[in-house]
Amino acid sequence: MEPQYASVKAILYGPYLLAGHISGGDWDDLKIEADDADWILPIPASYNSQLVSFFQDFEKSTFVLANSNQSFAMQKLPESGTDFALKATFRLVLKESSSKFSTLADANDRSVMLEPFDLPGMNVVHQGADKPLLIEDSSKGKPSSVFVVVPGLDGRNETISFESQSDKGCYVYSGLSSSAGVKLSCKSDSDSSFNQATSFVAREGLSQYHPISFVAKGVSRKFLLQPLLSFRDEHYTVYFNIQD
User: Fold this and answer.
1) Domain spans of the chain, in order of start
2) How far apart are CA 162 and CA 202, in angstroms?
3) Residues 93-142 pLDDT 10s
4) For tag attachment on the chain, is the N or C end more exposed, with fewer CB atoms within 10 Å?
5) Hey, what CATH topology would domain 49-204 get?
């Protein structure tokens, strides 16, 4: 074998070939150092109860909050088994890791972080008022990654709003537009359109973890690995640059 190809490896779990969810990047982005005992860890089945998608109705359609090229936007409902469904699914991570979380109701009035489904170890963060939301490594532990789940500002029983823990009175805000991008916006009065644009219906995530799912620690990011046979129309790789 040519030396430059010695690190090109696939990952098998019993009879299953594991594939990693990816969306672009180069060979260096797929580098994994497998000398640590915990370089690959199983995802607990209980994590499926923490997967959520967030919906709003406007312009006579239903939209969902989605990661769009490392920023966020409201997008039309995607088909299941697509990259768009992955990017419209988030894991609600309670800041108090010891707290119980078995249903969405357990997150009410709690401090949470939003982890994109296909980007384990990353968090949604804000940059301050009127600036777009971004994605950053959770290991940075920034206060801007923590939001408090509060009753929807629109007053409906079925909605929630996300208030920034570091910037009180500021909320995740869609602008009721699919083109404006999602940002943090601060409440100045009882504007009904503001209340509607900061209120989301939370439902079971559009994507779910396969019973055989793992997180692999890459050098530059973590990867969600699932059996190749479970993929439908998502981008993936079965080869990684694995350094022993």
Assistant:
1) 10-43+209-243, 49-204
2) 11
3) 998 876 677 778 788 899 999 999 999 999 999 999 999 999 999 988 88
4) N
5) Trefoil (Acidic Fibroblast Growth Factor, subunit A) (2.80.10)
Place of tokens 């804000």: 126
